[in-house]
Amino acid sequence: MTLSGRDSYRRTLTELAQQDSSILCLEADLGGKKHPFAEAHPDRFFNLGIAEGAMIDMAAGLAEAGYKPFASTFAPFAALRAAESLKLTLGYLHAGVTVVAPYAGVSGAWFGTTHHCLEDLAIMRAVPGVVIAAPYGESQMRAVVESAAQSQRPHYIRTGRNATYTSLPFTGSPPPVLTWGNETGSDVCLVSVGEEGTRLCLEAGAVRDGLSHAQLCYLDQENLRTAAAELRESGHGRIVVVEEHRRTGGIAEALAYLLPEAHVRGVGADERWPVEGGDHAETLAQVGLTLEAVLAAIDTKAETYR
Description:
By secondary structure, the chain is of the alpha/beta class. Helix content is 40%, strand content 18%. It contains 12 helices and 11 strands. The strands form 2 sheets. It has a 6-stranded parallel beta sheet, sandwiched between helices. It has a 5-stranded mixed beta sheet with strand order 7-9-8-10-11, sandwiched between helices. Strand 1 (23-27), helix 2 (36-40) and strand 2 (45-47) form a beta-alpha-beta unit. Helix 1 crosses helix 7 and helix 3 runs parallel beside helix 5. The radius of gyration is 19 Å and the shape is globular. The mean pLDDT is 95.
């Protein structure tokens, strides 16, 4: 059975901690009664309550003492409420802390705008030195967490809530910056970011045969430069980036700067706020992120991209 991103994170970290006594797990009141890490390693599990900034600061101190802290909370509370702590500890101090942020985008759906996060990539990309990842599926999440534990570099790992997906085939840990789901000679190349962006690109590829599709796993500036070089080498004339994030500060915007010779178009959340309740797909539709929007971007002529 395939696990969701956050469950894959918890299981992988619990397993890694069996061999590495320096791994610690911190949660901000989200651990639940049966957190696998808490059950397996209760002396290395810390529930900090609703104190996200303090959790990040504490994790930085633990990293300085030689531990490998993994801190997890809702994406809006990690990237927005605790932004100052993230900037100073992961960025300025370059502390070896891994922040795992579920409920990214609008995966919180019914929880409402307070629990949505369509702005985290814009914030985290502006903090130098932080590795940013948005894995797709259980296997890729596992590889990203394993790599974070080995590297001891500051990481921000973005994931959804309960959705389960099967990763695209890849090898290695860390996984490749770009994983090609389909590489053809098509003029258009779909570039997907995160769980829902990749789901939509796979659905679009099933409707329009022969499209190239590459899934982006790592999203910080250093890795985006690598991705841009590979996309340039692939020779596609038009690039359609699909991401569950605001267009402002998103990955489409970043790739447009890195690939000035290409026609880059983004399909992401528009400037609306979801004002009605709904499940994840319904909430995505309220901000314009649908299969129809992806297909419309594919069909848009290049000269209208900018």
